[in-house]
Amino acid sequence: MAFESGKATRGGGGDQPSPRDDAIRLLARREYSRYELESRLSAKGHAHGDVAACLDALAEQGLQSDERFAEHFVRSRIQRGQGPRKVRAELDQRGVGRDTVGRALEDAEVDWYQLAAETLARRFSDPGDAPKERAKRERFLAGRGFDFDQLKYALSHAWDANELD
């Protein structure tokens, strides 16, 4: 390695950060799943073997954790009013294992039925008079990732709290 302008350079010239440098830079901003980091580091041109070794080391040091990523992800999606089906699908897309996803959803200790009702009440002021209006509310909740039972509960209880005001 040669040194130019205070940085170590590799044989072909040009300053290219190591996979670890790039990974640390990414992790400094937010949590990433291993799969996301692997994709981003590979896209930057790092060799697959170097990326895998780097990610193994980061995981051993506790700097990258799919469990921690899933926990943060679930909490952020709950705050957005998203249901468990959508959260699970998004974590699956990010390469987080099913067991890790299941634990993160369980550890969140959220009442998904109540969350569906609160989300619906924030978006709509009433259950709707016409079947077309009720169908619109059902599609809204289904699109947010709530299952059929949570949807039905929300439709019948979303405006209960408003009566207490």
UniProtKB/TrEMBL annotation:
Record-linked Pfam families: RecX_HTH1, RecX_HTH2, RecX_HTH3
GO BP annotations listed: regulation of DNA repair
Chain ranges of the RecX second three-helical domain: 65-105
Domain RecX first three-helical stretches: 20-56
Primary localization: cytoplasm
Region (Disordered): 1-22
Gene3D superfamilies: Winged helix-like DNA-binding domain superfamily/Winged helix DNA-binding domain
Keyword Oxidoreductase among UniProt keywords: no
Residue ranges of domain RecX third three-helical in the record: 110-155
Sorted UniProt keywords: Cytoplasm
InterPro entries: RecX_HTH_1st, RecX_HTH_2nd, RecX_HTH_3rd, Regulatory_RecX, WH-like_DNA-bd_sf
Places the protein is found: Cytoplasm
Record family assignment: Belongs to the RecX family.
Described function: Modulates RecA activity.
Name listed for the protein in its UniProt record: Regulatory protein RecX
The organism of origin for this protein: Onishia taeanensis
